[in-house]
Write a structure and sequence with these properties.
The chain has 239 residues and is mainly alpha-helical.
């Protein structure tokens, strides 16, 4: 079966791991999720019950910071797209995208309650996409920053300095049936995270399989003639 052209192009971009191309792909993968979550959070404007779930002034702050983060990532993606042919490393641009996006998701997840909402899945897909497009060395600052935020949050919560789900008047789930607003929010948030996460995992598995087949062909064939080499012959003889 012939591989579609767009999939081959995507495979080359992922395997190449050029900083600018990776920034564009990362934004394309994470941006729609952030945008969907941001649009979903506008429901409190139309639904009084949903508005009462947030602490005073927390909702405008959440939406404002969320919107700034999306514009920030979009700006860097446009910059990277215009220079995508340049393969010169851009470490500062990578960090300018990774650190704010992961820190922003950490803060939103902790503020909404990471233990009883699907927000942890957003963090998971961000890590998976980031690890697939960037090296561990590039990702480490964002990871360590996120872990530092988590440790500080847990310590502050243990000392009763901040409450659990500090953006809300009360956690989403308190052992009772969910209100209609939170029932819809939890279901949509889970789907928004689950569908892209599944797609990314299948894509990475397919890319890995393709690379394994290409490596096997490289090892077992002669580069000049294309015929099976001595290694392939000995392998068949052993079988």
């Amino acid at each position: 079966m012939k591989t579609p052209a767009w999939l081959s192009t995507l495979e080359q971009r992922v395997a190449q791991r050029a900083d600018r191309s990776s920034i564009v792909l990362y934004t394309l993968a994470i941006g729609p999720i952030l945008a969907s979550l941001w649009l979903l959070q506008w429901a409190p404007v139309l639904h009084p019950a949903a508005a009462g779930a947030f602490r005073d002034s927390a909702w405008p702050l959440l939406q404002g910071a969320h919107g700034v983060l999306m514009l920030w990532m979009l700006g860097w993606a446009v910059w990277a797209w215009q220079r995508r042919a340049d393969t010169t490393p851009s470490p500062w641009a990578v960090q300018a995208v990774l650190v704010p996006s992961l820190l922003g998701l950490w803060l939103v997840s902790l503020g909404m309650g990471i233990q009883d909402t699907p927000m942890g899945m957003f963090l998971l897909i961000t890590f998976v996409v980031g690890r697939g497009l960037f090296s561990m060395a590039q990702l480490r600052w964002a990871l360590w920053s996120g872990m530092a935020v988590l440790v500080v949050h847990e310590a502050a919560q243990y000392m009763d300095l901040i409450p659990y789900a500090f953006l809300l008047n009360r956690p989403v789930y308190v052992g009772e049936p969910l209100t209609p607003w939170w029932d819809v929010w939890v279901r949509l948030t889970a789907l928004l995270a689950l569908v892209p996460l599944s797609g990314v995992l299948f894509l990475l598995a397919w890319l890995l399989q393709r690379r394994q087949l290409a490596l096997r062909a490289l090892v077992l064939t002669d580069a000049l003639t294309g015929l099976a080499n001595r290694r392939a012959f000995m392998s068949q003889l052993y079988r």
